[in-house]
Amino acid sequence: MLEEALEHLVKGIVEHPDDVRVRARRIRTGRVLEVRVHPDDLGKVIGRGGRTAKALRTVINALADGKYVRVDLVDLNEAR
Amino acid sequence: MTEAEESVKPAPDVAALEQEGEIAADYVEGLLDIADIDGDIDMDVEGDRAVVSVVGVKGSDLVGPGGEVLEALQELTRLAVHRQTGERSRLMLDIGGYRERRRAELTKIGAAAADDVKRSGEPKALQAMTPFERKIVHDAVAAAGLRSESEGEEPRRFVVVLPA
Prior knowledge:
Chain A has three helices and three strands, in the order H-E-E-H-H-E. Chain A is an alpha+beta fold. In chain A, strand 1 and strand 2 form a beta hairpin. By secondary structure, chain B is α+β, with helices and mostly antiparallel strands. Chain B is elongated and about 50 Å long.
């Protein structure tokens, strides 16, 4: 549900919604949701001073039922 | 600005504000559906801003401590509106009547601070608040016949009530 919620929140604010991908990974302390966006949209999802990224994390963590969820925002073309 | 210019200030474009409300309601409703949160969405225009309220929600997860989740969701919702209209939005989002309750509390806080300052003759600094909250406090202080200012940097900006 969190992946889907995050995808919805991000798709609504970017210029290239079809390029938004969310992937979930487990880490020891909880989960990581990795959001990939079009390179032109990365600045938009981070926001001035990280404001938008912070807002996304705040909403997702509020829906996470007290479990730790990390939200990473990356460029679609970024190799990992 | 001259008086003439002020008087020709255009009336709020209600159709545009209603459109903002529609976009915002779709965005928020989509989130509620995904998160399986029950609630209805009311739309309204108050003065020069659109207001979208989620009513009938159980629990306060989406409001959060001090309303921080509500502020975050409002911020994202404004961005969603901006993406579709190209215009900066001042839309207000409310969930479970939080803003109404907070407005009543802050009006009391502002009035009480004004009373203190009248008695002591000393300026009084209040807790850090959001811009929405400070506006309500400033209004309450003005209603009590005193002036107030905001000091500090966001998000730690706070109201200072000044003696007459």
